[in-house]
Each structure stands twice: as C-alpha cells, then as structure tokens.
C-alpha cells in the first residue's frame, strides 16, 4: 500500500523535529571535538591529543583509566541513541501503512543501537577487540540501511513531501 501525501508529511514531521535535529547536530559536533576528529581544530600546544584530528587519547597513561573526553563522548553517544529512540516512538504514533512503520522503526532502532554500542565500547575499562567492536557497530548500521531502503519514500526533504 502506497502512503498518502498526508501520511508522508506526518511521518516527516515526526522524524524531523527541529529541536531534535539541532540537539543531534550539537551532539555530533561535540563528539568530534571530544574525540579529536577534526584535523582543522586548534588544540593547545600542551594538549596530549596533538596533532589535531589524530583521535582521542583513549586511556590515561599514568592510571590506565579511560580518558575523560572519551567518557564524555560515550555519554553523548547515549544521548544520540535516546534521541533516536524518541524519534522511533514519535513515528510509532503516526498512522501510516503498518509494514512501512515496522521497517522505519526497525531502521531507527538499529541506528540507535549502533550509537549505544559505540558508547559502551568507548567507555569500556579495557582495550576492546577493535575488529569485533567494529563488526558489532557495522551490523547495526547495515540493518539500519537495509530497513531504511524499504521506506525511502518517507526519508525525503520537506520540499519533496510538500512541507
């Protein structure tokens, strides 16, 4: 069953709440700063994360504890996952074809799970198996992509859905 234009607009409204998108953008930018992912950023000369863009210092050499910036970034991963699950719940209240709703919610839940996994792996007190950690995250991302391909009609711009 093909969704109506009203259904597309209602789903779009649930997915793309401005306040949530702004919060997600802020969280992603914060993670980039905390994890030292931007080679264009300016770090103080005595910042142990130098050079810019080289990634975080995962563990504090003197104590072996997970670096505070990594722990904070892991917390931001949890916030991204929570925002995505809020989106999932909002989509659940919209009336549109059940099969499409199932695929869209599965895509959102899988994306949220990828962020939860990142946070858990990043804050782990020991060095993770990087290949296993990457595979865990990528499996969630692959599921999200596969599910979202089933509902691409709902993932259009506001202009494309007439808003």
What does this 3D model show about the protein?
The protein has helices spanning 5-15, 18-34, 68-92, 98-123, 130-149. The protein contains 5 helices and no strands. The protein has one domain. The longest helix is centred in the C-terminal third of the chain and has 26 residues, at 98-123. The protein is 61% helix and 0% strand.
Brief digest:
This protein is mainly alpha-helical. 61% of the residues lie in helices and 0% in strands.
What's the topology here?
Blueprint: H1 5-15, H2 18-34, H3 68-92, H4 98-123, H5 130-149
Helix pairs in contact: 2-3, 3-4, 4-5
Which key phrases capture this entry?
163 residues, mainly alpha, 5 helices
Total strands: 0
Number of helices: 5
Radius of gyration: 19 Å
Q: Helicity level, as a percent range?
A: 55-70%
What's the mean pLDDT score? Answer: 93
Q: Please give the alpha-carbon distance between the first and last residues.
A: 22 Å
Largest sheet: none
Shape: elongated
């Amino acid at each position: 069953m093909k969704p109506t234009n009203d259904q597309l607009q209602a789903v779009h409204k649930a997915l793309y709440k401005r306040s949530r998108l702004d919060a997600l953008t802020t969280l992603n930018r914060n993670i980039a700063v905390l994890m030292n992912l931007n080679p264009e950023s300016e770090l103080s000369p005595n910042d142990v994360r130098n050079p810019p863009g080289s990634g975080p210092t995962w563990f504090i050499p003197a104590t072996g504890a997970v670096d505070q910036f990594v722990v904070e970034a892991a917390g931001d991963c949890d916030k991204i996952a929570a925002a995505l699950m809020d989106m999932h719940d909002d989509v659940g209240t919209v009336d549109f074809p059940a099969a499409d709703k199932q695929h869209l919610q599965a895509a959102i839940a899988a994306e949220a799970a990828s962020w939860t996994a990142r946070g858990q792996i990043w804050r782990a007190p020991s060095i993770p198996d990087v290949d296993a950690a990457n595979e865990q995250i990528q499996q969630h991302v692959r599921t999200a992509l596969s599910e979202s391909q089933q509902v691409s009609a709902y993932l259009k711009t506001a202009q494309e859905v007439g808003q």
